[in-house]
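Re: [help] complex structure
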Amino acid sequence: MHTSLACLMKPVLYGYFRSSCSWRVRIAFALKCIEYDQVPVNLIKDGGQQLTDQYKALNPMQQVPAVSIDGITLSQSMAIVQYIDETRPGLRLLPADPKQRAQVRMICDLIASGIQPLQNLYVIQKIGAEKVQWAQHFINRGFEALEPILKQTAGTYCVGNEISMADICLVPQVYNAERFKVDINHFPTIKRLNQTLIELEAFKVSHPSCQPDTPDDVRT
Amino acid sequence: MHTSLACLMKPVLYGYFRSSCSWRVRIAFALKCIEYDQVPVNLIKDGGQQLTDQYKALNPMQQVPAVSIDGITLSQSMAIVQYIDETRPGLRLLPADPKQRAQVRMICDLIASGIQPLQNLYVIQKIGAEKVQWAQHFINRGFEALEPILKQTAGTYCVGNEISMADICLVPQVYNAERFKVDINHFPTIKRLNQTLIELEAFKVSHPSCQPDTPDDVRT
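Output below.
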């Protein structure tokens, strides 16, 4: 596709309503006020639609999300979010100060490398019967580390008083924690930040409970 | 500590010779020609020195690496590498073009979120008897996705003809793969890139076989 034509087209998000990594990308699009189309990839139905050859061509890792944007296809939610941030105007998702940027990235990576990969669908399916305890263990362990870090970095939001990629990572991870019945009351800073963020429009419109592929019995 | 004084001091890397995430940071320091001090944190000895209260204060996640730099302490290797890149002159570790930057980050995150966390020491200790098969499974799965991506993006290095963070992630992951006896011959692009990179000075001086805490029987 010719690049100039590709740039005129809306980005396409291949995602799943309940996937926390898909939600990260939806929050970023919402914060940046970017219109996009969604193509649902049902991770459960038909044994997992992410396993088809058609989807594998978009993301060889066979996970959601993937995004077609500006004539290229990207996978890995944090790479997608940073590409959106670097190429689109509006709210910036990383602070200007290098030390604050590093703190934002540290929080993002603690979640995106230290927690989420260990409790995602593919991994807990391999764990089998003990999957809930496994997921709880790794979420609790991650949150025990995240809580003292956020206590130091947080203002209104995860790092200071401006929304950043750290907030984009936090809210979907808390959502996962609640699904796995982790007691968020043990983490007062995480709880307080999540309560503040979840009230913001960008986090509401992107919430798993109201996406095109959200089943009726989950929809609120 | 007063910031101006902190900036005069060499960065301190808290790491472990064999940790692939510590190696990422060592490569970045070497590529940027930055002198630094190393404080070894032995992940095996005394039940794991990363579990002490002293180390937990540096990195609540109780993992290596952590880096003290410019008066702050950072954890999460990719956040550290990007902080170094954004605050130090010399070779840039991310391309200038936004699409290439996104490709570099996609490759980094595939490794740093999609492979390494699933085969790190803490996780395979929890898996127990089947730990080698578990690690092999997740490395093979990740490399099967990485190979076609690199086939599209690679020139001399992972993305085009300039060294980037993607190369910093690739080489230590191949080292882990070899430790777990994954057959790299199945992944010709990964193998070729690794062979090229491993000959570069920055990758040699930072190699696990020649660090201050490398045991004599591993040292080459």
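The mean pLDDT of chain B is 95.
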